[in-house]
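User: What would this chain look like folded?
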Amino acid sequence: MSTSTVIALCLLAVLTVQIDAQGSPTDVALRWAQEEVNIFELIAREKLPPTNAAQSDANELVDSLKMAISHCNIALQSSGNLTQHEACVKSVTTFAKSSLAEVASEHWAIYGASSGASRIHLFW
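Assistant: Here's the prediction, encoded as structure tokens.
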């Protein structure tokens, strides 16, 4: 096989997988909602200090978001209203991010006050 034939076959395989993976609009919306949860979880882990208390709060925020998103998903499956689902997911994700910012500011104030980097002599 020539190089162009191999490339064409690979491209065809990728396109076929993408078409099959897309599924129904409801499936796409459910996957998008799960991706929002996954992204939030990564952000929560990085935004909070590496203390047990902070990571515990991150777990609570992620669990709360998962529960809220599951309610959005249940509503989507019963109504089929994609616009309502998108608004629901965006709303609860925005609220979760706002909560994360508040929790992060509290934990960093505590963590920063107890870490060596907060000691003034390090900067003199």
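Confidence is low (pLDDT under 50) at residues 118-124. If you want, I can go into more detail on any region.
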